[in-house]
Amino acid sequence: MTAATGVSAATERSTTAHVVWASALGTAIEWYDFLIYGTAAALVFNKLFFPSFDPFVGTLAAFSTYAVGFVARPIGGAIIGHYGDRLGRKAMLVVTMIAMGLGTFLIGCLPTYSQIGIWAPIFLVVLRFIQGIGLGGEWSGAVVMVIEHAGNRRGFYGSLVQIGFPIGVAASTGIFALMTKLPEADFLSWGWRVPFLISILLVGIGFIVRLKLAETPHFKEVVERKEVLAQPVWEVLRRDWRSFLLAIGITVSEVGLAYLLTVFTVVYATTKLGLPRQVILDAVVYAAIVEFATLPLAGWLSDIFGRKALYLAGGIFSVALAFPLFWFLDTREPVLITLALVVTMTLTHALLFGPKAAFMPELFRTQVRYSGASLGANVAAALSGGFSPLIATALLAWTGSYWAVSLYIIALSVITIISTLMAPETARDALRS
């Protein structure tokens, strides 16, 4: 190796490390912004924005506004993905940070139903929609940015971006757990607003970091070859439709599990089981902390054994644990509840979400990679992620028991298993150009 080659390799490693760090930090902030809404929907919004309903119906109404953010995500994915494939990955990651930050901060400033009546839930829905638009282009842009810098270790480096999700879960749930220690009147008056208002500081940090990112070499090559497409979203639907459908299929179980484990379990434990909020919130935080280690481990293993092996394992464990999860929750024992969430999150969500950062973008060629990954991830999120807490809560109200929710988890998992079997193995191939 010549000195010049050594310097070049060191520079490349430095650039990759900076891209991974900046992407993970920004994604953590974005997930924090998006996820605090879910916790607030489970604990607060049914009382402050839908107070005239029965508590259970109020929770359903709150989760309906929660789902609005997921309906907005495919729209945001299409818009931001389009410009990400035309103007570059970096510019769109700055845009998503601004959209999410403003939407989250303004939710913390909203008057409640008792102050402005029906306008309170209307404004809540509008701001949730803005959040969804921002997140629709955030995750896909961050992982595309990383894997287009990552060389042959795409699974591992991509999974480091995924750490943003458990950071967001731990931070959003943890700060709400802290706020719930306030007297009930103070929590409902101003305490619930604090997690939303401090978001503006986090977004400022993420904004500055992302301004310093370098554009990816793969996108630069497309620009130099003058191969930028005029309508990348249309190209995904017209020419890459099979990859698009597979992307949806392999994602529905993972994204559904993410919100069932972090949002619906809070409702189930506090409403159905009558447990203190602190018990289930602490369990969710501990499960998220464990994912700090299991997500990179899953990404690293996917570089060795392939993306499909990890996805099939995650899908099979999701089926196997669908009923035991609720058996442990029903014990009402804090230690067993925490153990159940830690094990379930590790063997299901982590095995699916860790390799996803590489697997999803690898299905698409460079010219449409941002658009394809955005559409695939966000259509799946709209179908199973946003509506999962709503569907699970409705199933619980209908049956009075968890068995229907367990069957729902199994159905999502079977879709992912079938889609994985039909998908190509991408771990050992170069990125499609």
TrEMBL record:
UniProt keywords, alphabetically: Cell membrane, Membrane, Transmembrane, Transmembrane helix, Transport
UniProt cross-references to Pfam families, sorted A to Z: MFS_1
Electron transport keyword on record: no
Cellular component GO terms held in the UniProt record: plasma membrane
Entry's transmembrane regions: 31-50, 56-80, 92-113, 119-144, 156-178, 190-211, 244-271, 283-302, 309-329, 335-354, 375-396, 402-423
Signal peptide region: none
Name assigned to this protein: MFS transporter
Organism: Bradyrhizobium neotropicale
Taxonomic placement: Bacteria, Pseudomonadati, Pseudomonadota, Alphaproteobacteria, Hyphomicrobiales
